[in-house]
Amino acid sequence: MESVDLLYVHWPTDAYDPGDTLPAFDEVRDRGWTDHVGVSNFDRDLLADAQEVLDAPIVANQIEMHPLLPPTGAMLSYCANHDVAPVAYSPLCRGDALELDEVVAVAEKHDLSPARVLIAWLADQSVPVVTKASGTDHIEDTLAGLDLELDDEDRARIDGVERRYRRFDRDGSPWN
Ligand SMILES: NC(=O)c1ccc[n+]([C@@H]2O[C@H](COP(=O)([O-])OP(=O)(O)OC[C@H]3O[C@@H](n4cnc5c(N)ncnc54)[C@H](OP(=O)(O)O)[C@@H]3O)[C@@H](O)[C@H]2O)c1
Asked: SUPFAM superfamilies of this UniProt entry (predicted)?
């Protein structure tokens, strides 16, 4: 492989220094090794700071999103206003969200799998997803979620999940 479509700054840990990290990403893009630059697990302040330093546009911020950790309006509107795609990782919450009563109820109503409902719920909010599956059966099932259109009752039911759970947490992971 000579280049990738999109290279992410994975997590703003202590090793992340915008003045060092981001120019290196610009250089990688200038050399043609990546077409685009993204970030992951950035809150709005970190995102705004990175946009100041980077020459390349930030095309995506990949963050954990599912009904137990729903996307906030503030993050979605920031992304919409700055042409950054808010990409959801772990959209199934590594399987935990498949068992939520609200998700199962919507799945039973449409006679579809809970995974499809979870993907449809994010797609409905214009959020692209990266999920993971070990075999083609799960990949095909999950992809088919893009064809499911939720109605207001479905949305209200899933938005009504009150429990909060962040599966991936480092240093308080403040994005919102
Ligand atoms: N940027 C970050 O900090 C970060 C952090 C974590 C993850 N990620 C990325 O997010 C992506 C996915 O995250 P993830 O693996 O944590 O969680 P996930 O996609 O929410 O869940 C994966 C789990 O769900 C199961 N599954 C997948 N499709 C299914 C279906 N249709 N029906 C039933 N079960 C299904 C998989 O089982 P099988 O394996 O049996 O198919 C696997 O156990 C990965 O690409 C990862 O790189 C990014």
From this structure: NAD(P)-linked oxidoreductase (SSF51430)
Residue 171 has pLDDT above 80, yes or no: no
Cα-to-centroid distance, 95 and ligand 1 (Å) = 7
Helix ranges restricted to H, the chain: 18-30, 44-53, 73-81, 101-110, 114-123, 136-143, 152-159
Pocket of ligand 1 from Cβ distances under 6 Å: 10-11, 40-41, 62, 89-95, 98, 113, 115, 130-135, 138, 141-142, 168
Return the closest-CA partner of residue 77 out of 112, 47, 107: 47
Residue nearest to atom 9 of ligand 1 (CA): 89
In this model, does residue 169 exceed pLDDT 90?
A: no
Mean pLDDT for all residues in the chain: 93
